[in-house]
Amino acid sequence: MCKFTCLNILASTKNYKCETFVEKFFIKSQYLNIQKPIPENVIIDVHNHIGKPEPGLEVYQTPERLISEMDIAGVDKAIIFGFPEYSFNIVENNDYIFESIKKYPGRLIGFSLVNPWSREKAVKELERCVNKLGFKGLKLHPAIHHFSLNAHSLTDAIFEECSKLKIPIISHGQGDCPHCTPAQFGDMAETFPDVPLIMAHMGFWQNTEDAISKAMKYDNLYLDTTMNNNVESLRKAVDKAGAEKLVFGTDTPGPSMQVEIMKINVAIPDRKKRELILGGNISKILKI
Q: What is the pTM of this model?
């Protein structure tokens, strides 16, 4: 289990020496000599994509690849869901998530991925994933599936089903899209106060301030640290909204788990607050 100490960053290559945090963050993880964490509490990564290779799509990740990175980084468990780019075959990809979980029981936690434009089919698929496959939550991606998070005539049915099933939702929340702004997250958090709603990327980076403000206002709105490279933003989120409102995520297969953990260590010196972010908060949300 995880007893977390500060990481010793000895980041350097034969011809390159890192001088700043920004430089350390962006170099490839294989060039990092990171002292492995000594676990105390469980580390849970809330944001990982799993999917087999598909024709015409270069991005994929097998469960074996994810587990290998988890072992290297000292991550105990990971929430996994499909790639939203695979919208043409969502049922099959949810089944692939289920098969991945069976291969690594106790390490992987399944979230369903659906496209709200499928309407009744999306609701039925979500119900199937939770009741028959044992999934613990839902992933939405308004940017790729082209819908507004607070398009009530489209998304309310999904949120109502999550309320009925008592599961959380994690949704793309990067500031690169007008479909999933902090204001829209706030609207849905207010409309469905019993549904834990996680804003992936915490507004990165264009809307971070607004994201923090909304997390302060709504008890059921949480911020996922994935890919938010700004250390000061993370510190500000903890200072204003509280460590209880942040959850740790990576967004593999892109970013490195080791680097994302390093970012939390640099930004949050308080050990108890780090433990909440790295696993305590999501454990409470999922009741595990």
A: 0.86
